[in-house]
Design a protein that fits this description.
about 180 residues; mainly alpha; Four Helix Bundle (Hemerythrin (Met), subunit A)
Length: about 180
């Protein structure tokens, strides 16, 4: 029984961490793009001020909700590590976590519409195009860099020559044609 509880606790913690990481990474990437996007959209001073206010409000709201999610996850771990597992309590806590995550997604949507309301129609089109572009976060840049020309990738953006690291030696795994 104890072994089962330990396994269930480990699995629940792993799933919770796996779900949280991409969401937080996406939020950070979105917030980092703000200054670049402000330049691309050529915002007026008033628009830029409103944009900043909206971003700060979103960050505050998301941080508060994320804290609630973190506490609920700890409470779920407690429930999962109990000597006698209470299925109803575990399901209720899992639903609470899901509801909080849903609130965070809705807050992001609310933010998106609030931003649209401060933009001109031309800026809205530019913003929509920006949002549709694929994201290139640090993980993608590192993956691209490490592959290099020998592994199917190109040079690091802005690097001189075929690879920023020079000749990396023979391919560790030859291509299978």
């Amino acid at each position: 029984m104890i072994r089962t509880a330990i396994i269930v606790t480990i699995l629940a913690a792993g799933v919770a961490a796996a779900v949280a990481q991409p969401q937080r990474r996406a939020e950070r990437e979105h917030l980092r793009q703000g200054p670049r996007l402000v330049e691309e959209l050529d915002l007026t001073e008033q628009q830029e001020s409103q944009w900043k206010d909206l971003r700060f409000a979103l960050e505050k709201k998301q941080t508060a909700t994320r804290a609630k999610v973190d506490v609920a996850r700890i409470e779920l771990k407690e429930l999962m590590s109990a000597d006698k597992l209470d299925r109803a309590a575990i399901e209720k806590k899992t639903k609470e976590i899901s509801d909080l995550q849903y609130q965070m997604k809705l807050a992001h949507i609310d933010h998106m519409f609030a931003v649209l309301n401060i933009l001109t129609p031309e800026q809205q089109e530019e913003w929509k195009e920006h949002m549709a572009r694929p994201r290139s976060g640090m993980r993608d840049r590192l993956r691209h860099m490490m592959r290099g020309p020998r592994w199917g990738g190109g040079p690091w953006p802005g690097a001189e020559g075929p690879s920023r690291f020079g000749d990396l030696g023979p391919d560790p795994v030859p291509d299978e044609d």
